[in-house]
Each structure stands twice: as C-alpha cells, then as structure tokens.
C-alpha cells in the first residue's frame, strides 16, 4: 500500500510516530508530553498544558498521571469542554479529575466551564488564557468528521476560529448535535510549542489522509497539518 500521504506530511514538517498497540501508544504519548513539560520547567520554571477529553485519551491520561513531574509548577486546561458542570458524565473536567486523580490537586487548574453562559464562560476563560500564551503543549484529538477540539465542519465561524491570529482565545461553539461547547481557538492551539495529535484506527487514518486535500472549513484538522505538529498514530483502535 502506497504511503505517499506520509511523504506529504513530512514535506509539511509534520512528525509521525506509529505504534501497533494501544498500550504503547498511550505510554509513548505520555512520555512525550512529560519530556516536553520537563523541558519547559527547566527553561521557564513553569509549564502550560492543554489536554483533550473524550474516551480515546483515557489510557494516555492514566499513563500521564504516573509520570514523575513537578506538577505544582504545571498549569493545566482543556482543549475543549462540553457546556456542562463537572458533576455531569459528559464533562471533560470530570474525566481529567478522574484519570489524573493522583496529580490533579497539585496542578494549577483553569476550567473552561464556569456556569454563566457559553459566551460568558468563553470570554472569562479566554481572558485568563491570554496570560498563558504561548502554551507549551497542546494534545489534540480528531473525530471521524475531521473536527478537532470543538471546531466542527460547517460552523459559521470555523474558518475564523482556526486562524492563528483570531481575536479570541476561547470561543462558544455548537457540536453537530447542537449541544453547546467551549473550545480553544487557533490563536491558542497554534501557539503551542509542542502540538501533538493522537489518533487510532484505520478509519481515522483515512480521515487524516483525506484532510491533506481538504479545506479547513470542511475538515478543521486540516488547519493543523503542518509543522510543528507531531502525530501519534496507533493502528489498533482498541
């Protein structure tokens, strides 16, 4: 099978890390993130990290929680969040609190959800996140529709929000099912010194390959397929 797409990624300066087992994928990603955080701590005395939620990152989060780090000097936020309280099953904050439980109370946590309104919460979080720019590490995921964070295809302002110089750092968006979301924008995500994308399985690989030829408005992950992105891919979807 031709891997011309891999050459195309490398021509864009995108690094590719491939594993065949979900355990190796999670451990490798955790070690990569931890190494980047340690470097930031040495150079700047603090590290700023944005993580994705959902089910896919759970093994990675469990592995990350086992990394030996000066967690008290790490600032942590989410790439995106559902507009629900942290006591709700779909809350990404709840997911992080659960799977980073050994270290969560040691980090400087900045929630996106604040319970005001999606627009107000985005404004409050965005103002606070301005002081965090640039991020040291952002870990992205990708849906089968090509969305990343809560930047979905066909949103009226998605092209604007994907830009590195967009005015807002955090935006109120709607998912495909019209549920309200909060998301970091291109201003925050493109700022990250280490940009990592974690995906698994043949279906998502095909979406990624297709994104090389698609407009970001129709496939938002396409906006990030360039240096300094590093893709961690696992052929095992489990």
Automatic annotation (TrEMBL):
- From the UniProt record, list the reaction(s) this protein catalyses: 6-phospho-D-glucono-1,5-lactone + H2O = 6-phospho-D-gluconate + H(+)
**Described purpose of this protein according to its UniProt entry:** Hydrolysis of 6-phosphogluconolactone to 6-phosphogluconate.
Q: Which residues form the Glucosamine/galactosamine-6-phosphate isomerase domain?
A: 22-224
Family membership noted in the UniProt record: Belongs to the glucosamine/galactosamine-6-phosphate isomerase family. 6-phosphogluconolactonase subfamily.
What name is this protein filed under?
Answer: 6-phosphogluconolactonase
Q: Which UniProt keywords apply?
A: Hydrolase
List the EC numbers from the record: 3.1.1.31
- What positions belong to coiled-coil segments? none
According to the UniProt entry, its GO molecular function terms are:
6-phosphogluconolactonase activity
Q: Which NCBIfam families match?
A: pgl
Q: Which organism does this record belong to?
A: Pseudomonas abyssi
Show the Gene3D superfamilies listed in the entry: 3.40.50.1360
Q: What pathway does this protein act in? A: Carbohydrate degradation; pentose phosphate pathway; D-ribulose 5-phosphate from D-glucose 6-phosphate (oxidative stage): step 2/3
Annotated InterPro entries? 6-phosphogluconolactonase_DevB (IPR005900), 6PGL (IPR039104), Glc/Gal-6P_isomerase (IPR006148), NagB/RpiA_transferase-like (IPR037171)
Top-level EC class: hydrolase
Which GO terms fall under biological process for this protein? carbohydrate metabolic process; pentose-phosphate shunt
Keyword field contains Coiled coil:
no
């Amino acid at each position: 099978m031709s891997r011309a797409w891999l050459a195309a990624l490398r021509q864009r300066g995108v690094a590719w890390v491939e594993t065949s087992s979900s355990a190796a994928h999670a451990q490798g990603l955790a070690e990569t993130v931890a190494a980047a955080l340690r470097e930031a701590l040495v150079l700047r005395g603090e590290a700023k990290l944005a993580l994705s939620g959902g089910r896919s990152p759970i093994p990675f989060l469990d592995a990350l929680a086992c990394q030996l780090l000066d967690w008290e000097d790490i600032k942590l936020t989410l790439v995106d969040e559902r507009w629900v309280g942290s006591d709700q099953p779909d809350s990404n904050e709840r997911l992080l609190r659960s799977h980073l439980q050994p270290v969560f109370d040691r980090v400087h946590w900045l929630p996106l959800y604040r319970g005001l309104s999606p627009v107000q919460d985005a404004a409050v979080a965005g103002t606070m996140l301005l002081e965090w720019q640039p991020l040291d590490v952002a870990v992205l995921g990708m849906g089968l529709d090509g969305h990343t964070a809560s930047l979905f295809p066909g949103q009226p302002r998605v092209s604007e929000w994907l830009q590195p110089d967009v005015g807002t750092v955090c935006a109120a968006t709607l998912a495909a099912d019209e549920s309200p979301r909060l998301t970091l924008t291109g201003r925050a995500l493109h700022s990250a010194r280490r940009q990592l994308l974690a995906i698994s399985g043949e279906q998502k690989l095909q979406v990624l390959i297709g994104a090389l030829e698609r407009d970001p408005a129709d496939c938002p992950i396409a906006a990030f397929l360039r240096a300094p992105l590093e893709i961690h891919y696992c052929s095992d979807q489990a």
